[in-house]
TrEMBL record:
All copies of domain F-box, residue ranges: 37-83
NCBIfam families per the UniProt record, alphabetical: F_box_assoc_1
Pfam entry (one): F-box-like
SUPFAM superfamilies (UniProt xref): F-box domain, Galactose oxidase, central domain
Region (Disordered): 1-40
The species this protein was found in: Daucus carota subsp. sativus (Carrot)
Extent of Basic residues compositional bias: 7-17
Name of the protein this chain belongs to: F-box domain-containing protein
Gene3D superfamilies: 1.20.1280.50
Length: 462
């Protein structure tokens, strides 16, 4: 009988321990004990690493809270590099980061797109923000992002810039995957003589260094150009060294970029669309060209379109296609009943153009702009004149489809770049929302080698 008295029944129930199920019971149907479940503790380190290499960045950031050993592993440079390598080689994990004007003029957004998933809005930009004077020397991300634009993406790190209030003062490096950023102050290169700067992002593989390329040009007054092109120069910012360095081209840089940012990035090198400058000619600008800037040296290389692309009856639009420089050539609408678009790819070794695909014919006579390509080969094409609709075209299969979720987002597509989510953090990056905090209150940094387990250490070959 249960004990009587003060709280007898209740105390009796409280002292009674529940019967726990036994994991060693024999299954009556098979007469065999159940197989043990595999956990992170029972998986071999080699297999666990292979799983983590293929895990999304967002999940890995959460996994840092598992233990000090996991925190050390996920932050380890060799793990970060291997995870990036696996992500880059996985074509199905192809992302595009887009700077887009929202429909109806209701601001801008920075959006992450994939072929097979709904778009993800990374950041909403307040375009109605008033110009703000007297910025502090150190600024926070929220303040910087009010009017920013995407200007490149390399190894998961995105270059963002301003074209109005902060122009000539700051650019920034931002990794949206790990929620870190770094403001980069620009050097003063001549005050009133500088008309504008164009920025691009590159990757110096030999030094494992992310570089910012800055093309600085003088006043664009046409009278001065007719008299002779004055000057332009290049500066390179090294993320490893944290400083700018001028590039000596041994003479004038005869190139005028048309936009404030590079147009695309191929194999770590930024490409700018601009005008070829002829200083000794009565007409300063000759024709449109591509300019490639070496991310290691900053040296400039002119990439010419083939002669037959320069006809007035054709419209040439360069872009990046599967790690190569490509152009889409279209006849001027109205000249043909069913216009075609030809896709040419540049051979790096021979510097020759090869026709890869003929796209079309299209039933409507409009310009079509190649906005971006995915690693899987699909190309985002936008109608330019009327509807500005976006289509996803697979040139290999000659198949046109709509981009998943694009109707719900309704962007007016601006600049965009291929993007790979990564754990890469450059020197000086800070966690967004924790900038300018008192360093005395920061916890002591964890020594990765002290807490990295012996199993992970041996597998990583540390």
């Amino acid at each position: 009988m249960p004990p009587t008295g003060r709280g007898g029944r209740r105390n009796h129930l409280r002292r009674t321990k529940p019967i726990l199920p036994s994991h060693n019971l024999v299954d009556p149907t098979t007469s065999e004990p159940p197989k043990p479940h595999l956990t992170a503790r029972t998986l071999p380190p080699e297999l666990l690493l292979q799983i983590l290499y293929r895990t999304e960045v967002k999940a890995l950031v959460r996994f840092k809270c598992v233990s000090r050993s996991w925190y050390a592993l996920i932050n380890h440079p060799m793990f970060v590099k291997k995870h990036l390598s696996v992500s880059t080689s996985n074509k199905s994990n192809s992302h595009v980061i887009v700077n887009a004007n929202n429909a109806g003029g209701c601001g801008k957004s920075i959006v992450l797109l994939r072929v097979d998933k709904e778009p993800v809005r990374l950041l909403d930009i307040d375009t109605s923000a008033k110009d703000r004077d007297g910025y502090p020397r150190k600024i926070n991300f929220v303040d910087f992002s009010k009017k920013m634009h995407v200007a490149g993406s390399v190894n998961g790190v995105v270059l963002v810039m301003h074209i109005d209030e902060m122009m000539g003062r700051f650019v920034a490096l931002w990794n949206p995957g790990i929620n870190q950023w770094k403001a980069v102050k620009l050097d003063d290169l001549g005050g009133d003589d500088i008309e504008r700067s164009a920025f691009g992002l590159g990757y110096d593989e030999g030094n494992d260094d992310i570089k910012i390329v800055r093309v600085v040009t003088r006043s664009s007054c046409m009278n001065e150009f007719i008299a002779g092109f004055k000057w332009a120069r290049v500066e390179i910012y090294s993320a490893n060294r944290g400083c700018w360095k001028g590039v000596d081209h041994e003479g004038e840089l005869l190139f005028w970029p048309r936009q404030y940012h590079c147009n695309f990035i191929v194999k770590g090198a930024p490409y700018f669309v601009g005008m070829d400058v002829m200083p000794d000619s009565a007409v300063a600008f000759q024709h449109e060209i591509l300019a490639r800037f070496d991310p290691c040296t900053g040296f400039y290389k002119k990439v010419e379109y083939p002669e037959h692309f320069r006809e007035m009856s054709t419209w040439v639009q360069p872009f990046e296609y599967q790690d190569s420089v490509a152009v889409m050539v279209q006849s001027t609408p109205g000249l043909l009943d069913e216009p075609m678009i030809d896709l040419y790819v540049l051979d790096d070794d021979t510097a020759s153009w090869t026709k890869m695909y003929a796209i079309g014919p299209f039933p409507y006579k409009e310009f079509h702009y190649p906005r971006q390509s995915f690693k899987t080969g699909e190309i985002v094409i936008e109608e330019q004149l009327h509807t500005r609709d976006l289509y996803l075209y697979d040139p290999e299969a000659s198949y046109v489809s709509s981009l998943i979720g694009i109707d719900s987002l309704k962007p007016l597509w601006m600049q965009s770049y291929s993007h790979t989510e990564s754990l890469v953090s450059v020197k000086g990056m800070e966690l967004i929302g924790r900038e300018n905090k008192n360093k005395k209150n920061k916890p002591k940094k964890i020594n990765r080698m002290e807490v990295l387990s012996k199993e992970f250490e041996s597998v990583l070959h540390v």
